[in-house]
């Protein structure tokens, strides 16, 4: 019992489309991971910089168009 060529062709095309779609999703996820890793490195660098400041140093956080005074503790 053999499977007709047309059926095999349809299955093959469906699999190819699925692979293309999955590769596209994989690329998107890899990009998101790289972005999050970059954000993590920036946060770690900022934290390291803030820990070296004296306790009486004024620090500010941007909130919209305003800045709010924060303590470094």
TrEMBL record:
<dbReference type="Pfam" id="PF01920">
    <property type="entry name" value="Prefoldin_2"/>
</dbReference>
<dbReference type="InterPro" id="IPR002777">
    <property type="entry name" value="PFD_beta-like"/>
</dbReference>
<dbReference type="GO" id="GO:0044183">
    <property type="term" value="F:protein folding chaperone"/>
</dbReference>
<dbReference type="GO" id="GO:0051082">
    <property type="term" value="F:unfolded protein binding"/>
</dbReference>
<dbReference type="GO" id="GO:0005737">
    <property type="term" value="C:cytoplasm"/>
</dbReference>
<dbReference type="InterPro" id="IPR009053">
    <property type="entry name" value="Prefoldin"/>
</dbReference>
<keyword id="KW-0143">Chaperone</keyword>
<comment type="similarity">
    <text>Belongs to the prefoldin subunit beta family.</text>
</comment>
<dbReference type="GO" id="GO:0016272">
    <property type="term" value="C:prefoldin complex"/>
</dbReference>
<protein>
    <recommendedName>
        <fullName>Prefoldin</fullName>
    </recommendedName>
</protein>
